[in-house]
Specification:
By secondary structure, the chain is α/β, with parallel strands linked by helices. It is built from 18 helices and 15 strands. It has helices at 51-57, 61-67, 78-91, 106-109, 117-123, 132-137, 170-183, 206-212, 229-243, 257-265, 279-282, 325-335, 338-346, 363-366, 369-374, 378-386, 398-413, 418-435; strands at residues 42-48, 70-76, 98-100, 139-140, 143-144, 147-152, 154-159, 188-190, 269-275, 295-298, 309-310, 312-318, 349-350, 353-354, 389-390. The strands form five sheets. Strands 2-1-3-12-6 form a five-stranded mixed beta sheet. β13 (349-350) and β14 form a beta hairpin. It is globular.
C-alpha cells in the first residue's frame, strides 16, 4: 500500500497545481497536460453501480495511455452509497481520490469536496456546457465542486398500446386515467410513489406542481414557502391524484420509485413519471414484460398551464483529503469530456461487454442527431424538459427539512388534512433553520 499523507480540508485549489501550468494542453486531447506529470499515480474512484459508469470504466485504458495514471474503481449500490460517502467524510483519510454522490448530499459534505473553479479557468472548461439545472447541482455557495456526470430529467412514460395520445397536462392524466379504469380495469392508470422512504422520493413529482403554481420551497428570507395559498392548492392537487381522482395504483402509498417502475414494467400500471434512465429497462426482456413498441415517452405534463420540472444529478468530485488531487483533476477532465459523453450513449459494446446507456449531460449531446438516433429521440424530449427545470435546495440542512416535508406528503396521501400537515411542516422547518442560524 502506498504511503498517504492527509491534507486539511481547507487547502486552496491554487495550491494543488502540482503540474506545470505552461504545459501545451492544446496538443493533448481533453485539455490534458503534456508530459505525463503524474505518471505512475494510481487513483481510487468511488462510484455508484450503473451501466453508464461501466462504460466509462471500460474505456479508461485510453486515460492511462495518455497520462500514465492508473485507476481503481469501487462500485457501490445506490442504496448504500450515502452511508459510504458519509463515512469517507468522517474518516478524512483520502481512501478515495474521486467520489460520486447524489447532488443533495453535496452541501453537508462540501467541507471535504474540492472546489475546481480555478482549474476549470486554467484549462478553459465552462459549466455552460451543461443545462443550468445540472450545473447548479454540482455547485455550492458560489463554488463548483465537481461535474454532473450522471444527471436525469423527468419524463412521462406511457403505454402506447393503451394510450393513443399521451397527456400534455395533469388534467389530461386524470382524464386518461378515468378512461383507462373503464376500458382496462385490470391495469392501474398511474404509478406514483408517496411512501416516506428516507430518500424523499415522494417530493420528486410534488415539486413539479409546486413550481408550476408559482410557489417555492423557501422564501427569500429562508422561511418555508410551501404553505402559501398557491403551494397548498398545488399540494392538494398532487395528493388528489390518489385520494380524489383515484387514478393512481392502489399501492402507491407503499410505493417507492423502484416499486412504481416495477409496476409499469410488469404491465400493472399504464403511466409513470420518472427519470429518463429508466427507459431501457422498461423494454428489457430480462426485467420487463413490455416490448419497445409498447413504451412511449413525452415531456412532463403541465400544471395550471405551466411546466417546471425537477432535475437531479450525481456529480464526481475530488476529495480534499486525497494526496493525488492533480492527477484526479486530469481524470475528471478525461471523464467529463464531450466526446466521451456522446460515445457512451451511442456505442453499444465496450471491450466486448454490452452497454446500454442513454444518459448524457452536455447540451451538445442532448441536441446531437446521432445521440438521439441511437436512443429513440429521448435526449430531445429531455432537453425540452430541462429548459424549465431546477434542483432541490442546496443547503446542508436540506436532508432534515426534506424529511419533514416527505413525512407530511405521505400522511396527506394517506388521507390527512393537506393544509394542516403542510403548515405544520413549514413551522417545523423554520425551527430547524432558525436553530441552524440560517434564518432569524
Amino acid at each position: 500500500m502506498r504511503k498517504r499523507t492527509f491534507l486539511k480540508a481547507g487547502v486552496a485549489a491554487s495550491s494543488l497545481m502540482l503540474a506545470p501550468l505552461t504545459a501545451a494542453a492544446e496538443d493533448m486531447p481533453y485539455n490534458l497536460l503534456e508530459g505525463k506529470p503524474f505518471d505512475g499515480t494510481k487513483l481510487n474512484i468511488l462510484s455508484v453501480v450503473t451501466p453508464q459508469f461501466d462504460g466509462l470504466r471500460l474505456r479508461d485504458g485510453e486515460f492511462t495511455e495518455l497520462t500514465g495514471i492508473e485507476t481503481e474503481w469501487t462500485f457501490i449500490p445506490f442504496g448504500s452509497l450515502q452511508e459510504k460517502i458519509n463515512a469517507e467524510g468522517i474518516a478524512a483519510n483520502g481512501t478515495f481520490d474521486v467520489v460520486n454522490y447524489l447532488d443533495s448530499w453535496g452541501p453537508p459534505n462540501a467541507h471535504w469536496l474540492m472546489a475546481i473553479d480555478e482549474m476549470m479557468a486554467r484549462d478553459g472548461i465552462s459549466m455552460d456546457r451543461y443545462p443550468a439545472a445540472f450545473a447548479r447541482s454540482a455547485q455550492f455557495e458560489g463554488q463548483t465542486l465537481g461535474f454532473p456526470l450522471r444527471a436525469h430529467p423527468q419524463l412521462m412514460f406511457y403505454r402506447k398500446d393503451l394510450i393513443p395520445e399521451p397527456p400534455e397536462s395533469w388534467e389530461d392524466v386524470v382524464r386518461i386515467g378515468k378512461e383507462l379504469k373503464e376500458s382496462n380495469p385490470d391495469i392501474a392508470p398511474l404509478a406514483l410513489y408517496y411512501n416516506n422512504d428516507g430518500n424523499r422520493q415522494n417530493l420528486f413529482i410534488w415539486i413539479n406542481f409546486l413550481w408550476a403554481a408559482g410557489a417555492d420551497i423557501f422564501n427569500e428570507d429562508g422561511t418555508a414557502a410551501w404553505a402559501s395559498e398557491a403551494g397548498i392548492q398545488a399540494t392538494k392537487d398532487y395528493i388528489a391524484l390518489h385520494t380524489e381522482h383515484e387514478v393512481t395504483n392502489p399501492n402507491s402509498l407503499a410505493f417507492v420509485e423502484q416499486d412504481a417502475r416495477q409496476s409499469f414494467m410488469q404491465g400493472n400500471s399504464a403511466m409513470i413519471p420518472v427519470w429518463w434512465w429508466a427507459y431501457s429497462g422498461f423494454y428489457n426482456p430480462d426485467s420487463s414484460t413490455l416490448t419497445k413498441d409498447q413504451v412511449g415517452f413525452v415531456g412532463m405534463p403541465s400544471y395550471q398551464g405551466q411546466t417546471k420540472t425537477y432535475a437531479i444529478s450525481m456529480p464526481f468530485s475530488i476529495s480534499q483529503y486525497s494526496e493525488n488531487q492533480g492527477a484526479a483533476w486530469e481524470f475528471l477532465k478525461w471523464l467529463s469530456n464531450p466526446e466521451m459523453d456522446k460515445a457512451n450513449a451511442t456505442e453499444r459494446e465496450v471491450g466486448g461487454k454490452p452497454i446500454v446507456n442513454n444518459v448524457v449531460t452536455h447540451i451538445a449531446s442532448l441536441q446531437d442527431p446521432d445521440v438521439n438516433a441511437a436512443n429513440d429521440g429521448i435526449q430531445a424530449a429531455a432537453w425540452e424538459s430541462l429548459k424549465q427545470s431546477d434542483i432541490m435546495p442546496q443547503i446542508p440542512e436540506w436532508p432534515e427539512v426534506g424529511d419533514i416535508l416527505s413525512a407530511a406528503i405521505a400522511e396527506a396521501a394517506a388521507g390527512g388534512d393537506v393544509a394542516e400537515l403542510m403548515t405544520a411542516a413549514a413551522e417545523r422547518s423554520d425551527k430547524v433553520l432558525r436553530r441552524a442560524g440560517r434564518i432569524q
